[in-house]
Write a structure and sequence with these properties.
The chain has about 290 residues and is α/β, with parallel strands linked by helices. Helices cover about 40% and strands about 15% of the residues.
């Protein structure tokens, strides 16, 4: 640990879906975030950080007797890869009772992360959110989150995609693991049979957009990557902003690719400030 003594620690509200919500806000959109935090300094930091980012956060903190606010220390190496040291804390107690159908009713899309599938209560919260969304006519977005989750829950994720999902997010490795084949094009075909719309990211190559079984490659942007943490989250946030503002999936993917390319050039999981003024320039440049 001696090598880390002179490395600064930057604390931010985090988690995959949280980063995505903030990317939506930075694009000029709005969102409501549902989570579980404790009545401790980290929980208060989380609340303030989300509110300052213009994301609604109507979460009542729980007693620290139930555990602390979850934390994750992210270590990045010179090749821009990452290692996560995570204590989930009170976040494992998120349950179906935390899902408010009235909040979902106010939304165009709901966004659920696959990380929550690893606990029984958090999994049930996901299912509740998806069922409430379907009842309210809100489109359901689901992200696989990580390849290890696909390896563990492939059958469950297949059911989610078939029964609930309108929009699916995954990366190339997750898609290959999910489909059991190497060709990304063939993976896109298989995934397109399950969902109406899918976005499959592929690093610097950009992404594949699958809509109504039609596959469209959307190229990425040149970037000098120093930290890949949060790239997929920023991509999803950019896409969701585009979709909720009536842009086509390929236009939305263009903006998502741009935000992802910007995030990998900085340390940390998300950008600072507003990026809304760049949206039209980036999207129109694809025409």
């Amino acid at each position: 640990m001696q090598d880390l003594e002179n490395i600064s620690l930057k604390k931010r509200s985090g988690g995959s879906a949280a980063n995505t919500m903030i990317a939506i806000a930075q694009s000029g959109g709005t969102g409501i975030f549902v989570a579980k935090v404790a009545e401790d300094p980290d929980g208060e930091l989380y609340r303030k950080d989300m509110l300052e980012s213009k994301i609604e956060f109507n979460v009542v903190p729980t007693s620290t007797a139930n555990g602390p606010t979850g934390t994750s220390v992210i270590l990045t190496t010179p090749d821009a890869e990452r290692t996560m040291c995570t204590n989930l804390g009170v976040s494992v107690n998120l349950s179906a009772s935390d899902i408010d159908p009235e909040q979902i009713k106010r939304c165009k899309y709901s966004y659920i992360e696959g990380y929550l599938w690893s606990g029984p209560d958090t999994k049930q919260a996901c299912i509740q959110a998806m069922e409430d969304s379907k009842r309210q006519g809100v489109k359901v977005c689901f992200t696989f989150s990580d390849q290890f989750l696909v390896d563990m829950f492939a059958d469950d994720f297949r059911q989610v995609a078939s029964n609930y999902c309108d929009v699916l997010f995954c990366n190339a490795d997750e898609a290959r693991s999910f489909c059991g084949i190497e060709s990304l094009e063939e993976c896109a075909i298989k995934i397109g049979e399950l969902v109406e719309t899918a976005f499959i990211t592929n690093g610097k190559e950009g992404c594949l957009v699958v809509q109504d079984k039609k596959i469209t490659p959307v190229p990425g942007f040149a970037a000098k990557a120093i930290d890949t943490v949060g790239a997929g989250d920023a991509f999803a946030g950019g896409v969701l902003f585009g979709l909720t503002h009536d842009y086509t999936p390929t236009q939305a993917a263009r903006w998502g690719n741009y935000l992802a390319s910007a995030v990998v050039e900085i340390q940390g999981p998300r950008l600072e400030g507003s990026w809304a003024d760049k949206f039209q320039e980036v999207v129109s440049s694809s025409n």
